[in-house]
Design a protein that fits this description.
9 helices; globular
Length: about 300
């Protein structure tokens, strides 16, 4: 049995006791996989005393090796701020972010550069490929920066390109590729150097539905065949349904969590839509309480 506290606009609505369905229970308990990323009590404050904004407010969660985790929330909820803090683009006000046993909030400038190069892979909404480099050269860049030998670079690039289905564009420039091809090349660049964590920021945001589906299937391949650990920020329920687990953020706080478990992608998609409706206030209070009690694992009492 679990306790679920449902709040709307900061006012407690109800506390419900319920047993979550299989695949959702025990969200706070670690599974058999090693914890790769541990975010603890993270606070991010902007502004001065007169106008303080808590972009992140006491956020804590873990991501294990090999997980594909989505982060969702309304505009301004803090999901992009969270991604920026994990990627070290931004700094936390307080709290810790531990990746592979190291607290990255304590790293200095030179250490940060090495951390971003060696431990992180990035996939952005815009592919961010270099226009003057071919697909091969864009993918190889992550290895070249690390000082890999030419033979090793070619082998790794070709192997990754084959897995992600972009061998036919390796000699093309970004302007000669479709949007979906550019994003898949970007995904290959993100994973070719074997980073500890791949961060995807609205990766399907600039794609049509067909190319978005291809990219999401590419992320699935990265996760399932290469065992890549992926954290994806998205507003799109379809994109989120490809993940194993969804963290929902509201007003800078971790609001709740969904686990796919044995559900089909269609069922998981419907559950994500229902949580989004609740977060946006489009669901009645009584039905929302019933829904959250049966489908959502609260992250705290």
């Amino acid at each position: 049995m679990g306790m679920y506290r449902i709040e709307e606009k900061g006012i407690p609505m109800s506390v419900v006791t319920a047993t979550p369905p299989a695949g959702i229970a025990n969200a706070n308990q670690s599974n058999s996989r090693k914890v790769l990323l541990s975010v603890r009590d993270v606070l991010k404050v902007y502004g001065s005393r007169e106008a303080v904004t808590r972009a992140l407010d006491d956020v804590s969660f873990d991501i294990c090796e090999g997980e594909f985790v989505g982060v969702m929330g309304p505009s301004g909820s803090g999901k992009s701020t969270l991604l920026n803090c994990i990627s070290t683009i931004d700094t936390v006000t307080s709290g810790s972010i531990i990746l592979n046993g190291r607290d990255i909030t304590q790293l200095r400038s030179r250490q940060l550069s090495k951390f971003r190069r060696d431990d992180l892979g990035f996939i952005f909404q815009d592919a961010n490929l270099l226009d003057t480099l071919t697909g091969f050269e864009n993918i190889a860049l992550a290895l070249t920066i690390k000082g890999e030998k030419a033979d090793a670079v070619r082998t790794k690039v070709e192997r990754t390109a084959t897995l992600l289905g972009v061998t036919d564009v390796l000699q093309k420039y970004p302007r000669q590729m479709s949007g979906g091809q550019r994003q898949r090349v970007a995904a290959a660049r993100a994973i070719v150097a074997d980073p500890k964590l791949v961060l995807a920021d609205e990766p399907t945001g600039a794609l049509d539905s067909r190319n978005a589906a291809v990219l999401l299937e590419t992320l699935e391949v990265l996760n399932e065949k290469l065992h890549a650990t992926i954290m994806m920020v998205t507003h799109d329920a379809v994109a989120a349904s490809y993940a194993d687990r969804i963290l929902f953020i509201k007003d800078g706080k971790l609001f709740n969590e969904l686990r796919r478990g044995d559900s089909s992608r269609t069922d998981f998609y419907q559950r994500i839509l229902e949580v989004q409706a609740f977060l946006s206030g489009k669901q009645g209070a009584s039905s929302a309480v019933g829904f959250v009690a049966s489908h959502v694992t609260a992250l705290g009492n």
